[in-house]
Amino acid sequence: MKLSARNALKGKVLEITKGQVVAKVKVDVGGQSITSLVSVDAIEDLDLKVGDEVSAIVKSTEVMIAK
């Protein structure tokens, strides 16, 4: 699969919390965690499970940095 996004972070699924429509997926990326909201249908289509190796793909028009 080819994507226009260039920020693909490899990691492992730590936690999946399913709601009725949306699921929260927590991914460990090099000791840091990223949380993504995806549809429950997408979780089922991907057969996503805790422990799976995944890529967290970030596509954004704005990046903020605070110090």
From TrEMBL:
One of its GO terms (biological process) is molybdate ion transport. SUPFAM superfamilies: MOP-like. Residues 2-67 form the Mop domain. Keywords: Molybdenum. It comes from the Bacteria. InterPro entries: Mo/tungstate-bd_C_term_dom, Mop_domain, Transp-assoc_OB_typ1. It holds the Pfam family TOBE. This is Molybdenum-pterin-binding protein.
